[in-house]
């Protein structure tokens, strides 16, 4: 009886039900970030072919730092965007990939090499203009199409997602048709860009990508309190005084910006965000997004850095990192879908 009374005294109406849950959260969060920093250090210096006292040691580390920075940007974009998207749509199975970012990315690159040739394709992927062009096109498509759908007479999330699936399928069909008509050498050149990889990133992109990601992340964290209400659904959020339609459109804008930057920087990562978000929901014993977003970032950064470290330095399989991440993410998606029984 005394233990029951004590447990009731320990309970709280705050983000965490008990002090023990709060303590476990901070221990796990600090542990994940510490592991991420340790693995990041390993990615920079482990198995460096140049001796540490050589003048060439730092240039090698700087080249590796480009890949590590791309991993961090991708982790921030994918983790925050997926959690934000699932909370605003009140559905933990659907992902921002349904909006067609990967399909549009594939169509842009396939169309360039199909209509203009390999020389223009190589020049296009080597400059800042290509990154800005892809990001602007993806954000514009999302805002014009889905913003219009949410404000129109058919405005609802289910209709919007259905349109996204149809558009994505159509773009993939067009890309597949054009790839079948390419020369073998052009096809091989194109395939290297269609798989998500940090090797696709260019350090020249960072002065543009980093400020955009930082600003979007700040907006998301500031909006986290209203997002707690928005995640209750349309009827619940409206009854509590939150404009549900505005909240969804606002969230969609931030999601489109983050997903566009990530896709244009490293390529498509379809199930990476879903994998991170699902693990976050299991690790965080609260629905308060102020605590969910940092945990999602810690898990996302640990997953991508650990995957690259083990595949690069342990298994010597540099080209399959994104494939492995996508495979585990896809398996987890099927498991969650089968257990839930619906979208």
Written overview of the protein:
With 343 residues, this protein is mainly α. The chain has helices spanning 2-10, 19-45, 57-89, 101-116, 118-125, 128-151, 157-180, 184-194, 206-222, 224-230, 234-239, 244-266, 272-283, 289-314, 321-340. The chain has a single domain (20-47, 56-340), classed as ABC transporter involved in vitamin B12 uptake, BtuC (Orthogonal Bundle). It has 15 helices and no strands. Helix content is 77%, strand content 0%.
Keywords summarizing the entry:
single chain, 343 residues, mainly alpha
> Roughly how many Å apart are the termini?
43 Å
CATH architecture: Orthogonal Bundle
The tally of helices reads 15
Given helix and strand content, the structural type is mainly alpha
Task: State the major sheet.
Answer: none
> Which whole number gives the mean pLDDT?
80
User: Class, according to the CATH hierarchy?
Assistant: Mainly Alpha
* Overall domain count: 1
Percent of residues in beta strands:
under 5%
Q: Tell me roughly what share of residues is in helical segments.
A: over 70%
Specify Rg, calculated over alpha carbons: 21 Å
